[in-house]
Specification:
With about 350 residues, the protein is of the alpha/beta class. It has helices at about 1-15, 25-30, 60-75, 75-80, 105-120, 135-145, 155-170, 175-180, 225-240, 300-310, 320-335, 345-350, and strands at about 95, 100, 125-130, 150, 175, 195-200, 215-220, 240-250, 255, 260-265, 275-280, 285-295. The chain is about 35% helix and about 15% strand. The strands form 3 sheets. The chain has an 8-stranded mixed β-sheet, sandwiched between helices. A two-stranded antiparallel sheet has the order 1-2.
Amino acid sequence: MEYLNKIKHNFKLAYEDYIDDHKSLHWEKSYKKFSNNINGISNFRNKKKLSIDLDDYGGFFQTIDALLKLVDICGKKFIDENTENLIGNPEQVYEIGNKKYNYNDLHNVNNLYQIKKNLKKNPKLILEIGGGYGCLMAKLKKNFNDAKIISIDLPEALLLQSYYLHSIFPEKRFFLYEDYKNIKNFENFDFNKYDFYILPPWVLKKFKFSNKIDLIINIDSMMEMRKKIIAEYFDLIHYSLAEEGIFYNVNKYLKSKGGDVVKISEYPYNKKWRVLYSENYWLKKNIHTLITEKTNYDSEDLNLVLSSLPKKNFELKVKKGFKKVLKSAIRKICDKTFHIIPKKIWIKLLKIYL
């Protein structure tokens, strides 16, 4: 209860200092009534009561499909070692072979795998911009226990992250907004004192990150921002990422809900990058994964990759007519009734993967 009161207090402090430029139109609309519901934080993922756009939902069959495809990518052992599906009480969690899975969590297991595959060494300092409710940060901390993790996000998300991460790591040290407000001199700030730094974006200019960060992550949030804010973040990325540090960027080809028309192909990268990976994102046709390594030399490689990316989203084919309605109805019925099918039948059907 003491920690709950503490993070609610920090949410109020940050909310009072809110700088509106950092809120997209979409965020402002989605989180208009957030502060009225924070007493229900222990159930924040249940029906997305507080996690709203930070939590991808998928029914039973979509979750099964994601699980089977992810097994082919990284193996079931890696998935089971890194899955977490209880905190926040999400209702779309499905037991398959004595293990529980959730669609959003599987996406973050995939992100973790892609990051680990492209890192040359264990990161000491990680920064995630727009980390949702903290799902990926928790997985990174479990895999890189010595790493210090900085989360930069808006007050609503910071509250969820503070709750989620502390629920998994109650023994870890958390630097929250009130701690920031009590600092008088940032010149020699030591990032080794805490495990997690949970802070809003307007504090960034106070810290001296120059070439200190080993891994920077942005997933599905730059596409929601105004171009001005994206440019500010790229200034930070160019300045703070260490040489051979990795920027893991997963965003939409085109999105305009944030107030501007934003394209990943137009993100303001400088020329000091080496492309490690550039592919359409797993399971999401209109989102791209771009993994780059910071270098100390100029190269046109990244510009060539960016210029080759689609400038608009793919048209998703929508099937019309009676068959579509019938399939949709059958799927909804199956999603509602799958739990009455004996578990041993599901295990037999999926035994090649389980």
